[in-house]
């Protein structure tokens, strides 16, 4: 009989705990971010050697210095942007950086667009 009381007490406690938990409201959706920032611009010389650019968020400029041995006409940069944002040209797409290249970052909600000018120098 004593064990039965423990099980009943345990059952009542579980019911109380489960009924006190709140669920998110049905239909509650977190709005998409308005951020459209380029957060990293990196060029790899090989698997272990890479060069990170300096990003000026105010001026929307990116400046990268690479060694003379890297061909500026066939660079495939790794680009990271704000979560959910989209960058064009895409990360990993081959680019010719003989002249500055513009990258457009669009926020997940589509309301914010930032254009970054990327310059690569030796």
TrEMBL record:
Annotated keywords? Signal
> Mind telling me what this protein is named?
DUF5018 domain-containing protein
Q: Which residues form the signal peptide?
A: 1-24
Tree of life domain: Bacteria
Q: Which Gene3D superfamilies match?
A: 2.60.40.2340
User: What is the native source organism of this protein?
Assistant: Bacteroides intestinalis
């Amino acid at each position: 009989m004593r064990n039965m009381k423990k099980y009943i007490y345990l059952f009542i406690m579980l019911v109380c705990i489960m009924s006190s938990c709140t669920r998110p409201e049905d239909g509650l959706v977190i709005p998409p971010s308005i951020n459209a920032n380029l957060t990293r611009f990196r060029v790899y010389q090989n698997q272990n050697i890479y060069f990170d650019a300096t990003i000026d968020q105010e001026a929307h400029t990116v400046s990268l210095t690479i060694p003379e041995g890297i061909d500026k006409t066939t660079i495939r940069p790794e680009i990271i942007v704000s979560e959910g944002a989209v960058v064009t040209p895409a990360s990993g797409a081959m680019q010719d950086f003989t002249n500055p290249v513009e990258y457009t970052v669009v926020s997940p909600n589509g309301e914010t667009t930032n254009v970054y000018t990327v310059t690569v120098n030796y």
